[in-house]
From TrEMBL:
It catalyses: Hydrolysis of terminal non-reducing alpha-L-arabinofuranoside residues in alpha-L-arabinosides. Transmembrane segments: none annotated. Its EC number is 3.2.1.55. Keywords: Glycoprotein, Hydrolase, Signal. This is non-reducing end alpha-L-arabinofuranosidase. Pfam families: Alpha-L-AF_C, ASD1_dom. Belongs to the glycosyl hydrolase 51 family. It comes from the Bacteria. Residues 460-647 form the Alpha-L-arabinofuranosidase C-terminal domain.
Amino acid sequence: MIRRKLLGVFILSCALGLSAQEKKSFTIDISHPTGNISPNMWGVFFEDINLGADGGIYAELIKNRSFEFADPFMGWKKLGEKIGEGTFLVLNRKDKPNNPRFLRVNTSLSSEKVGLQNEGFRGMGIKQGLRYDFSVLYKQAVPGITLRLQLVDTLGAVIGESTLRPEKTGTDWQKQQISFRAAKTEPKAKLVLWFEGKGTLDVDMISLFPEDTWKNRPGGLRKDMVQLLADMKPGFIRFPGGCIVEGRDLANRFQWKKTVGPIEDRKLIINRWNTEFKHRLTPDYYQSFGLGFFEYFQLAEDIGAEPLPILNCGMACQFNTAELVPIDELDEYVQDALDLIEFANGDTGTKWGKLRAEMGHPLPFNLKMLGVGNENWGPQYIERLEVFKKALNERYPNIKIVASSGTDPEGERFEFLNKELRRLKVDFIDEHYYRSPDWFLTHANRYDAYDRQGPKIFAGEYAAHTDRTAGTGNRNNWKAAIAEAAFLTGVERNADVVGMASYAPLFAHVDGWQWTPDLIWVDNLQAYGTPNYQVQKLYAINKGTHVISVRMDNVIPSGQDGLYASAVLDSKTNEAIIKVVNHNDYPINGSFNIQTKENLAKEVEHIVLTAGLAEENSIQHPNKVSPKIDKVTLKGKTIISDLSPYSFHIFKIKIK
């Protein structure tokens, strides 16, 4: 019996050893490219969800700075032991329809000192030694009140302070600013404003920004979050969403004209994710539009990405009210699209080009494409799209139109839209898929048989969901990320069909999210890229210019034996770039035979991304799952390399 057991162990050990030494041969044909790759291929999708804008990339630290929330004191706390009736009054004015409310503070009605405390967005991230710029719009008939500002930590200790004395009197609104430095780093600080002295002071647009914004722009964007985007070298940025384009109803849809011009004249609205998910109610989630369409265009330009704005097509979210604008009343919506192109591209002699110049950008933004509708479906969408397409083609024939294929990548709804959009000959069909990791693994060949002569595909929103769509249990772990890496070999292999691709959503705040998973996570002080981010970044910075053929045992490696591969040629850097995923729990000995008459450099750059399937990055360990780089040596024109279990590899071969 003992002898039989030992023999069984020996046989099992031999089997495992053979499995560990399994060899696979790949052939890469450099000499015959099979398709071109769009320079915009890999991009980013931005939506104001999960505190992505206010409380996220928009660096404003004050929540409800203009008292325009449904509860005008949401985010604020009144301070003082004996606050007299009428000390704080929220008033309305008719000359500012987009920002009607302001606060009147009458300290003469209180015998003790009074103040206000703002909680920020889940607190305020404050950094020791950094300068903070406070500003306020005010109006006073007679001087008498001085503002004393204090940043306080979670224990109430003052970690930064200054004093602002309103300088001007009269009936006109004035803006005044003062700066001070923080004495301590604190992730959950609050701002306290004490109103000292006796008198009456009207205040609005109470604001606090750190000095270290992206490109040091006053009132700008959070530097670390933008840097993560810039590091990806994205080909495009899609904005502003997403379902917020549609709104729960049309009154709450995204209207770009209300997001441009002076900050104080932009119209705040409730964020549609405010109460969308019962498991993550966020009643304090609004859109101030400090990050508006001008800032989106500017961000795209900053990071070298093509802007891709998406506009409402006269349909509210069909999961909510499904409210429609009658076809004969669609002119306003179509005009918004035409005017947006003028805002982006018009000269300074046009109405909207002039506004762009006044905002600081006289030169055009060179908009090339525009999305009409987001995740809309049915014949009602098609008939509205036709109206938009006719007007856009007549006025701006060079603008590419991106159209929605609905919410799912298959089914009756998708089939109807796919057929109709091809009939209309739109430029891009926007496909979305939030599915399990297994779906991504088994659909890596999705685009192999797509029509090469029809519209291009925009893989506009995708992510592997480890639990369920919109559930709370989805993880940004390596299990999800490696499934996406495998699927994207099929996207890259079919770059002659798929012109653009972007993961979604982009940002999430660890204390303010509504949806998981997400590409980049942040708290008030730090930001990190997930394993999914690392995959997207590796594709984006190694995108190449031409697709080249890869074969494994004379077939396309698209899941056979757990292996996936694609390859590109980069004519700019004169490199061949091979991407391969080993989705097995054992290593593979890979042999990559390069077919070319050209001479190849002997030293090959090798990038590998691997981890346990459950591993994730975090605020505490932001680089736990991140690429490692080494070198391998060509043997003739062959690369021999072990592909570790559950790994994503990139080989970069210089062509002399």
